[in-house]
Task: structure prediction
Amino acid sequence: MGKIWNHNKIAYGGDYNPEQWPEEVWEEDMRCFKLAGIDIVTLNVFSWASLQKDDEVYDFERLDKIIKLCTENDLKICLATSTGAHPAWMARKYPEILRTDFDGRKHKFGGRHNSCPNSPVYRRYSSLLAYKLSERYKDNKNIIAWHVSNEYGGDCYCENCEKAFRVWLKDRYKTIDEVNKAWNMSFWGHTLYDFDDVVAPSNISEHFPLFGRDRTQFQSISIDYRRFMTESIVDCYKLERDEIRKNTPDIPVTTNLMGFYPVLDYRKFAKEMEFISWDNYPSPHETPAEIAICHELMKGLKSGQSFCLMEQTPSVTNWQPFNKLKRPNEMRLLSYQAVAHGSDSVMFFQMRRSIGACEKYHGAVIDHAGRTDTRVFREITALGDELKKLGDITLGARSKARAAIIYDWENRWGIEYSAGPSILIDYRREVTNYYEVFHKNNIACDLIGPDEDFSKYDLIIAPILYMVKGDMGERLEKYVAEGGVFATTYFSGYVEEHDLVTGAYPGKLKDLLGIWVEESDALPEGEKNSFTRDGKTYEASILLDLIHTEGAEVLSSYNEDFYAGTPMFTVNSFGKGKAYYIGCSSDKEFYKDFVLELCEKADISKELSNYEGLEAVSRYNDSGSEILFLLNHNKSELTVKLHADMTDAINKTEYKKGQEVTFGPRDVMIFSINE
Amino acid sequence: MGKIWNHNKIAYGGDYNPEQWPEEVWEEDMRCFKLAGIDIVTLNVFSWASLQKDDEVYDFERLDKIIKLCTENDLKICLATSTGAHPAWMARKYPEILRTDFDGRKHKFGGRHNSCPNSPVYRRYSSLLAYKLSERYKDNKNIIAWHVSNEYGGDCYCENCEKAFRVWLKDRYKTIDEVNKAWNMSFWGHTLYDFDDVVAPSNISEHFPLFGRDRTQFQSISIDYRRFMTESIVDCYKLERDEIRKNTPDIPVTTNLMGFYPVLDYRKFAKEMEFISWDNYPSPHETPAEIAICHELMKGLKSGQSFCLMEQTPSVTNWQPFNKLKRPNEMRLLSYQAVAHGSDSVMFFQMRRSIGACEKYHGAVIDHAGRTDTRVFREITALGDELKKLGDITLGARSKARAAIIYDWENRWGIEYSAGPSILIDYRREVTNYYEVFHKNNIACDLIGPDEDFSKYDLIIAPILYMVKGDMGERLEKYVAEGGVFATTYFSGYVEEHDLVTGAYPGKLKDLLGIWVEESDALPEGEKNSFTRDGKTYEASILLDLIHTEGAEVLSSYNEDFYAGTPMFTVNSFGKGKAYYIGCSSDKEFYKDFVLELCEKADISKELSNYEGLEAVSRYNDSGSEILFLLNHNKSELTVKLHADMTDAINKTEYKKGQEVTFGPRDVMIFSINE
Amino acid sequence: MGKIWNHNKIAYGGDYNPEQWPEEVWEEDMRCFKLAGIDIVTLNVFSWASLQKDDEVYDFERLDKIIKLCTENDLKICLATSTGAHPAWMARKYPEILRTDFDGRKHKFGGRHNSCPNSPVYRRYSSLLAYKLSERYKDNKNIIAWHVSNEYGGDCYCENCEKAFRVWLKDRYKTIDEVNKAWNMSFWGHTLYDFDDVVAPSNISEHFPLFGRDRTQFQSISIDYRRFMTESIVDCYKLERDEIRKNTPDIPVTTNLMGFYPVLDYRKFAKEMEFISWDNYPSPHETPAEIAICHELMKGLKSGQSFCLMEQTPSVTNWQPFNKLKRPNEMRLLSYQAVAHGSDSVMFFQMRRSIGACEKYHGAVIDHAGRTDTRVFREITALGDELKKLGDITLGARSKARAAIIYDWENRWGIEYSAGPSILIDYRREVTNYYEVFHKNNIACDLIGPDEDFSKYDLIIAPILYMVKGDMGERLEKYVAEGGVFATTYFSGYVEEHDLVTGAYPGKLKDLLGIWVEESDALPEGEKNSFTRDGKTYEASILLDLIHTEGAEVLSSYNEDFYAGTPMFTVNSFGKGKAYYIGCSSDKEFYKDFVLELCEKADISKELSNYEGLEAVSRYNDSGSEILFLLNHNKSELTVKLHADMTDAINKTEYKKGQEVTFGPRDVMIFSINE
Result:
């Protein structure tokens, strides 16, 4: 296990950009931080322009001052490399550093995430800056983490990228014939004769917008370009990280991710990061389960290791269409939800509100009014106080989930690029449909990647497992054969990693599931069919598979239309385990009944599942002792009967099993379970 | 009359792309085709890249094998020229071949329909390929048609096109002054001094998007560019066709069209095609009438000559937002509907499903599962069986319609480019409104072009005849004067062929109609007025003309608003005939009452019109004998009392006049009428 | 005061483009004009191409003829300079003249408003043309105004503009450090080192579309670019004007504006215009108040001086989605509404309908039918008759408003570019919400700019005064201190002129208002809160401020949510006056109750306020005598009891105080008040 960094409590602080203010403001900042119990700041996120003035001249004077000030004030430092936006002079002098967008437009200087990841100039100067920073500050003991770049994102379609893509393809496929095969280029006579025939897939080559979506004519090319683009950006990250390691091999390196962000395959990043950090910005209409699943996804990137909540707003965002205030207690509730799901920090964007540019109306610890007598500052101070009392008991502690849901970025790309059968197929939504049952019933459930060790789990659900890559089919068979319970759904098992169809659906999962799918009916929006099981009737929607069993047992069939009576829900005994197939999308009742049945079969018990709006999450520390988080997501009070003896981890009050505890609206309690 | 090609039954087969699979699959294909009664394949649709490897080297080896195999298996061949997508190497070596889009973006290699029609390189190499193919396979007796390119479409705005446009203009107008006059260039001071001042009309010159539509500032330029672009593409077709004719003067040449596809004026194509072929892909919400009108439009392109249904899906499409399965019997029903309306073939895209790229989820005769025990394959086999029994009796047979509706592409362009009076004016919809009455009442009605011989018909309806070109006004006057019945509507007679207004509306139709239109009120979406006739009140919507009669008789006037009492529906006696004017869009009741009244006036009788969901269509062969198609579009049974003695054309059962026959859901029967 | 031009009655006429027709049509035009009482024509709006044939050769022959004809027919002439669209040859020869759009696309020849305002070629040739025209026609006494260009609009992002922007910045800020400060460029490391680092803010630099809106990452840059672009275009105007002045120093110069057109800051234009002229094209769903506010905005540009209604349609527009006819009397009603609000003209676009291009379906005095026996022509003639009778009594007459609403273009830019707090914040809508109460109650209310002399008014409302520029805060304090009543709303006082936040909101208005705003809750669309005052409950929506008073008195607080009881509506006594703050958007009942209360406090009385649909507006001429316009906006009759002795200004009938007068639907009467 181990902690993610050298800190002895939940880190409390956030992004701090003193370079935007005159120095007289800095002292006031320090005073406020102290008041609020802030003990960590992320520095230097966007300062490249001021650190490097031209090809030769660097100037660290102001950063020296800032770091000195923070160090003197006992603040831990998460030091960023500043490479999330390049300097204006660099864009002017080396236009190659600028990106070309999906419409083929070469951009000018502006914005952020604005560097071409395959620009030699960008790579050279960004890694050099990482080297210089780590060399300069390597002896500062307050620096406990490196924060490379910021929220990596976007993509580029310039000539440098196009050339690099050709090299990437040559590495991967060796010959152009293998590329042709992997991309099925005999279709529409697209056969390539030379690597130089390859162009970047974009709106001026294979893509075009349709039905408000991005559609490609060659899914395989587009998926490979996404892979290549992810790796190009990961390479930028690695170049910086490796320079840093030369100087500070013991300080962990991270970069802040963004949950379900679809453009980059975060599993490739995770392999190169010492710990995961991420930025949590739910919109007001997101449910607790929809937020929890993001934490689980992020935690799952490094197989359950605890992570850093790098950013959240203390009060309000600015970039949503309607930026609603976080309600009283909501910031505390969401902070503890992050901790419950594995965070070892509670960090904010931002410490002080900018006075200009596009984030000036984003919430901050210190607002434009600069006052400490505000609701938000009071809530921040109260939480700072609590976190001190909570101490280190949760640091590095992990969950003990016996159930898991598979989520795979490449699978999502395959589904979203697919021309047909239905634009209503929504991978993230369907994954969440299943996750919500676990969440509502307070059953721990991990989000895992396709390469995870399946044997750790008793139950694995893989909604819409469209792309079955490499030996995944065999690994799933082994998992079930040895006693695992597995479930998958419609539009699964269609293709291998190049998006090539592998025969009758569900392809490599056919034996495991004991079925084959003859046809699938895509119902237009609003149309429904239904199926009945144990006297209950459920909705069938989106894509309706017409199944033939080849060994599987039929659990239910359609009620209506010409395929009334045709199986759509089956279970197959395979070795010691069971494999379920659900041939359509359904309604919340179905997901609930089915997932709870699976948990029962897998002998996964649930505690505290009878309280509407109560989230109960446990972390287990090195010594195996359990810390239990109880979160009342209701806007009203909730009384809970405790299921064990436990001690309030903040004020140390002891409770007995069976005792009732009343939570205020949006209230949270944290307990050490007494064994 | 005559048949479209050398085949003695309804051709049954479709697009076959064996080049996407290893040869071992080919033999399995042949086995399946035999099972299913397939007797024709379209080959070589997208193989340019494999046929031509660089400027010099051609390689026909694999195509030789494929043709040999098909020939040995007694399959007729529709041989495509493969020029619907250029090879990647050609795009790399000759970038001029790539298109520049409507936003001025030069494209890279990708997609299909991707060649600039005015590229000398494209023209040279595409026609050379057509020559080489026809020379190589000229002695193969199984080849019964040439299929040039594929689904021609799109447009180009590159410099080559711009230059060619100037040449086209010089040919057409001789002087720049004539261009200025035709385009009304004194407006906004657009006067051109030289042909070099002409630029292509696009989003970076005269066009811009508004209200979700494409709007132009000079309709005349944009319409001329559409004409030019159509002719440019027709020229590409002709270049290939002429090369083919050098080698195989007796094998007919076609290219596959796409129904109401608005971008190209198909009448210009039709003149150069030996027979029409087209691809029928209705969406699930299209009605039988909406599909029938497409067949009629296509058939009308060559004045009623029978056509080839080149593509339809056996089961499912992949490119619609929701790709619903064709229901049991639906493929048979739609196949026979095509035959009833004039097709001499039933052909599918595609024979075997691709495993990669954007059409891999499009239905096929042989599915990814590769099985012949599926619902779809069984239906295909059953139809194959029937078509053999049906034999040749329908080949080349024609309809005998006495009514016609005019549909003109250039008229559509004029209407859709028009800035004002209302974006709700929908030419295709209004044409369909009138057609639907004929269809529902089983009265034959042709879709004709503006140059058709009007004297063949007793009744002609021209909904929204906005553009009255050349001598069309005089020709319509002659038609009515000699006894014809004619009807037209609001927004008619406004402009001549250059989109220039010709005076008081309806311009050149004023005398014929005996009215003039003082004003037209465009009602916002949802607003309605009404009018009453013979005690029935109908809706008035979209555009409401305020009419003055000048000789015409008023049939009805508006009920509401400041123009209550103002005429909007008139009839004018002109020579021996009558000319009707309907000054607004209306509701289904009106279209029904009015069209049936017209038919009665024109003494056009209807048979079998009292069956909801029954489509009855007759074809008459060379000897004049009638083949009657009865199609039950209902999802339930339907019993029909026959109106004559007739013989089932498939199983030869005889029926007497007055006998009742029961059709299953979506059932079809074909009869020879006994005289 | 003074009249705007040398004419002794309300000018009646409009845009006349005889160059689009052969000369034989011109005489017919003259006949029609005479019939209709037309006495002014705007000539030469789009004739550059015909006036200048290449760099050297000019040809005024046809214009000579047209001017001679009009002069002989006693028509006053408003002579345009024709520079609203450049000639095609100029675009071909000097591509620099063409604009580059917001997506970075260099345009080709086409459209209008198509010249780069920073093109040296455009500036040279446009001002030279203005010189030549004014020199040539300087002795024609019928020319009473110059009309420079036409409906200036749009913007450009080409390299010339980019370079000019750098020069503009250097003029304004002197050093790049000052630019960095004004734009807060330390944010995201955007610090510039050199003026050459500056690029134009567009979709390929700082902008991107979001939520269907244009969003920028640096508001300060984007606002400065808008300022620069306005000034660039104003410079083009000034260059022409100054050339004209050399020849005809006594003929006033104008250009036609477009009401609330958001792209250009019309206050900068107004300073350079001798009088305001504008084009009034309401859509059918606009209310009388929504039209009236446009007139007031335009009139306010030159502090109440009367203006010229340069364009309106006599009947119908062509560019709206549904172009509804103006109802009977509606043209007269809208014409007199313009006059009531300060117009000294009633002018149409256009005198004769074009036969080709995008405005051919726009209404005209002479329609395509060319007839004078139409409803529209009859209404035009009747109005022409009346205007002759009305004579000169209204010319130059002004309003006497004691209330004003502030509207500022730069403020609008700041609000619309703002990233957060809510996309529902709608400046124009909120300004209109307040204006509507004045309008409905027939209380005169001016629309004024931020630099107006506030002391002229007893009541000033500044809805959403987001940007408080320069000394405006102090000037408002002075105004209130001296006894003025002031009101402002949520999202006010945030920033200074560079969009930099000035501390706790409402910033520089804090002392005046005696409050500070701790937080603001942006409610998602459809969500509401409420507040109650004097027993009436009003809606609270869009953005809800949570206020702390610092001296102000609380007038109302929220009813619901966690901030129930928190103040949102306050009044502060400041010197001799009062300053109100309304912390949210509300409903019509609130605006009515509040504005009427303010008027009562400011002792502003209302007359004739009890008639639904009656608009009563007064103008006062030089001698101080009042002309009263009564406009019945109802579709039905209305009877009004007169509040004073008065004389019908058209037919001279006398009325006594208390006498009742009945107006027909959409009827208007104009009275001289007898003192």
